[in-house]
Amino acid sequence: MKFTYVLLVAVLGCASFSPAGGKTPQRPNILWICIEDWSPDLSCYGTAGIETPHVDKLAAEGIRYERAFTTSPVCSTSRSAMMTGFYQNYIGANQHREHNKQPLPHGVKPIPHIFKDAGYYTALMSWKTDCNFVPNKKGELFEGEDWSGRALGQPFFARITFGGTHRAWNRDPQRPIDSKDVEIPPYYPDTEFVRRDWANGLEQMQLVDREVGALLQRLEDEGLADNTLVFFIGDHGRCHIRGKQFLYDGGIHIPMIMRWPGQVKPGQVSGAMVQSIDICATILEAAGITPPVPLHGKSLFSKEVKKRKYIFAARDKMDETHDAIRAIRSRDWKLIHNLMPERPWCQYNRYKEGSYPVLAEMNVMNMKGELTPEQAAFFAPTKPEFELFDLNTDPFEVKNLAADPAYAKVKAELLTELNNWRLNVIEDKGNTAEFLAENTFPKTCPLPTVDKWVQANGDKYDFNVSGWPAWYPTRTLEEWEKARAEWEPYVMRGPEEKVARPQISHSKRKKKKLK
Fold first, then answer.
1. Which is the most buried residue in 89, 129, 293, 396, by most CB within 10 A?
2. What is the model's pLDDT at position 465?
């Protein structure tokens, strides 16, 4: 499906924020809807197989952003940025699952605190805050759990997360998706196992779409829709290989939709380069609130966003998997700087090995030599320091041009801009010797899986400091084949069939219920 890009050029008029005819305009309510681990895999974005009529309707009533990106490809770092309007590295919140949370620096305040100070009632209508700073608890950041708790006539700022799209995924008996109807990117093998796993994720998004629809209907039923600015967004990219935790578009490209009756013309599609932290500046401007210090994010109504050439993103520690990656993206180009190229992309991560069935499928195929070069590249034992992609000819980012002299000028220009951002915007601290953990572990893994070794040696090492070992591959072929076989009945289950989710890696959590 092809879409016509229509840039948002309207700037909010003075009447939106200034008294008109001696009367103070009514401040809008703000409803910020977030879904987890999801790229723009929605029918309004042209994704094959899926139907998301409620989100599609929201997009038709407002503006849909085609080039929207998060600042980090995992929940806590991305949410830390969105809770403040600043890049996560600048505020010291860039290490996922931070164990030593610190107060916000530089005079930065959480967005809900700023709204509260301006007279708004603040509510978090779901459980997850997931911020790498203090205060970070729900009751410390928000006043209540529902907008119904506000005083009569008081505007509200409410956030809600629908977590269904976070692994694991439920099937959709109401509208099951035929695996033949989905489109698989070329960096995945086109097997029935891969197709079914992809389709299962789309079915889960259909379930979330109905939850979103019910929430939007509540706004209508309570007479709030006309004076509520609604944002719909993903916290980061899809939970698939080369998605979540990485700076390819699969990890940072997100859906973003804004609806504001009477202020935002419906039916718009924007090709502007926008970021998740721009929402913070936008809603503050809409409410007529000036933040205590200027945000990194910019209002979506501003000329700065209209003229923006680049977006930036960063990845650091993910759980106890140590890596560091920076990226700059324009409309046409992406440059990725791998700060730890000696480490593999697929070094051990407990969460992914226990949650991504296709990781088992592709490791088996890679060890047997059954992947294409494009697919096998991600399973290499090391990374190149730089990756450069021409997004017009290579939208899936599989043809690295960084070493090609013909693209040296493009690479140099992007790297200059990236380094300027690192030095002058986020004040990038880079990696410490402690983080690199060189010579900390034995040279090779003495057990069949890194997972078993980590579980057996947790009392001998402080993985919170050193991270997990970067041994690769993380399992023998036999162990990956075993994992693949355990995933098979779960991935291939029918729409109404109950099958227990297998426990592939060690977990302290209770076993999942039948799905």
1. 89
2. 95
